[in-house]
Amino acid sequence: MKFVSVPLPLQQAVMHTMQRRLTQASNFLQQRFPEPHITYQQRGTIAGSARLQDWEIRLNPVLLIENQQAFIDQVIPHELAHLLAYHQFGKVAPHGKEWRFIMEMIFEVPANRTHQFSVNSVRSKIFIYYCGCQQHELTIRQHNKVLRGKNCYVCRQCGEKLTLSGRTK
Question: Would the pTM of this model clear 0.70, i.e. be above it?
Fold first, then answer.
């Protein structure tokens, strides 16, 4: 993975938002929460992830840099809500009622499960396969499974086995 350095002012903005959201949660729930460890190591098209047992939030540096304020406004509360839901309620559904409660009632942010950022710059290579009726796009992970003989993909329309075209996208 190529290392992407997040500019210091942007890291500071992330931390400021994290602290502000933690204060909101502390005031609402009347208890203090430790600051989660933040890393900028999330890869792929995922904006962020919460590592519950480690009390850590991983952020995608490329998507953060490309979508600065929207990312901070949406992704930070989203991932922090996962940690807080786990802390308050234990193991619950990832985007269940407990998580939604924290997002909507405490943070006053829409409880969107996924981001809407453009992922063109972080999308991995797509491999073109075909069958008797159409073209199919497989991810590099799916393609590698085919190469290793672990998976064989079949078209849902015609039932024919997919064959690599030799082209990529």
Answer: yes
